[in-house]
Amino acid sequence: MEESPDRRLQRWAAAHHGLYRATDALEAGLTRRQIRYRVEQGRADRIGYDLFRIAGAPVTQDQRTLAAAWRSGGVVSHRTAAELHDLIGRSIHTPHASVARRSSHWLDDVVLHRTEDLLDVETMELRGVPVTTPARTLVDMGLQVTDKELEKALHRAVHTGRTTFEEVWRIYRRISAQGRNGAGPIGDLLRSIDIDSAAAESDLEVELIAALRTFGAPTPVRQHDVIVDGHRFRLDLAYPDHRVFLEGDGFGVHGDREGFELDRWRQDLLVVHGWWPLRFTWRQIRRSPEWCALTVLRKLDQVGSPDF
Fold first, then answer.
1. In angstroms, how far is CA 113 from the centroid of its own chain?
2. Nearest-5° angle of CA 177, CA 183, CA 184?
3. 202-236 pLDDT, tens per residue?
4. Bridge-partner residues for 112, per DSSP?
5. What is the pTM of this model?
6. pLDDT attached to residue 100
7. Please, which pLDDT band fits residue 261 given cuts at 50, 70 and 90?
8. In the chain, pLDDT over 70 holds for what percent of residues?
9. pLDDT confidence of residue 248
10. In this predicted structure, what is the pLDDT of residue 304?
């Protein structure tokens, strides 16, 4: 039995957060008159020009985001894209979308960014929403978040494999060469960190790295591999020449008793083989970043650069 136009449209809307456009309804087999009639019947709500929501569909942030993209004729970008990619925490704000510079759209409830430098390969679809890629999003979002939020987002995107430092660099160089100022923050950040090391694995590590940089401590190596007694360990942050390693102790890090025991065994084994641990809590890093950095500097000065 052939599927009815209404059923086809419902399936489409279900995959797009309860939304559909007039073109989607026409493709499903409805006529313009039937589209209007369903609104009159209360089976759909008109929420924009030729944009509709299935009656009863829950209003979600992803739905608002998709509506912004469809109404603008562009793609979700900047801070809104960062939230969609889970690079930063979600907030209540006016959605951002990037559109072609020649676009004539003007929307009161969408922040439009008119651009000529957004390439097709820098866009994608995520949960049914057209959006800038993680790398392009990181380049665009710098003026809308704090420096620390941007740094955390960069490490999160790289650590989870959604982009690389090199890809972000390539996009930044191309855009900055065209004279666009908005990309400045990501360029400053990339120049200030060691992109040859692995990305930090947690926000706590990023906070500690930022504290060290701010108060004059040398940049540690991230995710440093070391082998002792035939066991390979990965140290969150390390100064290999000094055999000093840093770790952030957040709540719930170990998860269970076995994890707790393994962590202590690992640390003791490293100490026996000449490594010095420095552990900092989330509260210490957030409330006393200068003390954390000075503690590291004092230890590096005490140890020097021994010839092992």
1. 20
2. 95
3. 899 999 999 999 999 999 999 999 999 999 999 99
4. 97
5. 0.84
6. 86
7. confident
8. 94
9. 83
10. 82
User: Which residues have a Cβ under 8 Å from the Cβ of 279 and sit 6 or more positions away?
Assistant: 246, 247, 248, 249
Query: Phi-psi region for residue 98, left (φ > 0), alpha (ψ -120 to 50) or beta?
Result: beta
H-helix segments, 73-143: 78-84, 134-140
Residue ranges and CATH numbers for the domains of the chain are 5-57 (no CATH), 62-192 (no CATH), 203-303 (3.40.960.10)
Tokens of 263: 């962590």
The half-sphere exposure of 125 on its side-chain side, counting CA atoms within 13 A, is 7
Give φ, ψ of 280 to 5 degrees.
-125, 140
Lookup: tokens for 119: 């390439």
Which residues are paired to 75 by β-bridges?
A: 98
Judge whether 140 and 131 are in contact, CB under 8 Å: no
Q: Element (H or E) spanning 248, and its range?
A: strand 244-249
- pLDDT of residue 183 exceeding 50, the answer is yes
* Pairing between β-strand 111-115 and β-strand 96-100 as defined by DSSP bridges: parallel
What does the block give as tokens for 22? Answer: 């007039």
